[in-house]
Design brief:
The protein has 263 residues and is α/β, with parallel strands linked by helices. It has a single domain, classed as Rossmann fold (3-Layer(aba) Sandwich), CATH 3.40.50.880. It is 30% helix and 19% strand. The strands form 3 sheets. The protein has an 8-stranded mixed beta sheet with strand order 2-1-3-4-12-11-10-7. A two-stranded antiparallel ribbon has the order 5-9. Strand 10 and strand 11 form a beta hairpin. Helix 1 crosses helix 6. The relative contact order is 0.18.
Length: 263
């Protein structure tokens, strides 16, 4: 079993070695990285923002990066667009190099697709839009400490658990809510990164999503945010600190105490 990530958390390990940036992959012109980018910036981690949909390339190696995050978007992992296929194929890079990788919603579905798992709509056409409960598995606390019991969702497709992945959290409408693959790759269906401003934009521009079966009305999003958001925000900070520490630990292990590189 992998060592618990939160056992590695400390003020030194939380900063990626040599100030390497984290690659952030966004899918719309005006998309933002929300609390993920805010956390990284607060901790002095540079942001390398790429939008493959708008023609940005993806790096051939992550040797110069501390990790990578692929965010959500209105696209489907089943789309035939060139940039969607390119992103799915590119996930081979962080997996091969054992770099910290996080897929959020669409990003998690891309990870699942890359690993050969099925991504599809709910068989009854249901969606998760708003706050929904999740249940943790026995593997969740191998990753980090306190998880939220209710999370913010914005999706109408889900994914099966890929072969070799560990389920971290599950839900009632879409079963797989969080997974881990290998030592440092994660996929989550939910949106812990969403700020209040982002919620305002999403529920305004994406108002049609709230008419889907199973979706919650706009008023419920804002009524439930004060109830559940603190736990979500705390979990995200704990997770990201541990997630970054995995890259620092790998970099430290590659360098002998004398400063010579190990074979």
């Amino acid at each position: 079993m992998h060592a618990p990530l939160d056992s590695k958390i400390n003020s030194k390990a939380s900063a990626p070695a040599a100030g390497r940036p984290v690659l952030l992959v966004l899918h719309q012109e005006l998309s933002t990285s929300g609390r993920v980018g805010q956390y990284l910036t607060r901790h002095g981690v540079p942001l390398d923002i790429r939008r493959p949909r708008l023609g940005d390339p993806l790096p051939e190696t992550l040797a110069g990066h501390a990790g990578a995050v692929i965010f959500g978007g209105p696209q489907s992992a089943n789309d035939s667009d060139e940039f969607v296929r390119r992103e799915i194929d590119w996930i081979a890079v962080p997996l091969a190099e054992k770099k910290p990788f996080l897929g959020i919603c669409l990003g998690a579905q891309m990870l699942a697709k890359h690993l050969g798992a099925r991504v599809s709509p709910h068989p009854e056409g249901k969606a998760e839009v708003g706050y929904y409960p999740i249940r943790l598995t026995e593997h969740a606390h191998d990753v980090c400490g306190d998880w939220p019991n209710v999370v913010y969702q914005w999706h109408r497709e889900g994914f099966e658990l890929p072969h070799g992945a560990k389920m971290l959290a599950e839900g009632d409408i879409f079963r797989v809510q969080a997974m881990r693959y290998g030592p440092t790759a994660y996929g989550v269906q939910f949106h812990a990164e969403v700020t209040h401003a982002m919620m305002c934009r999403w529920t305004t521009r994406g108002h049609a999503r709230m008419e889907l079966p199973g979706a919650k009305k706009r008023a419920a999003h804002f009524a439930e945010r004060p109830v559940y958001d603190l736990a979500i925000r705390k979990w995200l900070a704990t997770f990201l600190q541990a997630w970054l520490a995995a890259d620092s630990a790998a970099a430290d292990a590659a360098v002998a105490p004398s400063g010579t590189v190990t074979s």
